[in-house]
Specification:
Blueprint (H helix, E strand, L loop, with lengths): L9 H18 L6 H10 L10 H27 L1
Helix pairs in contact: 1-3
């Protein structure tokens, strides 16, 4: 398997991102309307949209960066095989 330079701890970064998404969702008011939406948001972490409230913008940026990292890894693995 191809080794990539470890300039960052991808596992830790991904775990932290997931924890921040969960904390954000916990901070939202939960009622009959918002509960299914919050549940859906948790299932769709990687599909955050930039038009969301300002609080989620940093999470969206992190999501985008992680997506690009995983795409690069996948692309590199395909080239090497």
């Amino acid at each position: 398997m191809t080794q990539f330079p470890n300039n960052y701890d991808l596992e830790e970064r991904t775990a932290k991102f997931g924890e921040e998404i969960i904390e954000f969702c916990k901070s939202l008011k939960q009622d009959a309307i918002t509960k299914p939406i919050i549940s859906q948001r948790l299932r769709m972490m990687a599909k955050c949209v930039p038009e969301m409230k300002e609080e989620i913008r940093s999470l969206w940026r992190e999501c985008q960066e992680l997506t690009l990292i995983f795409q690069k890894i996948t692309s590199s693995l395909k080239k090497n095989n």
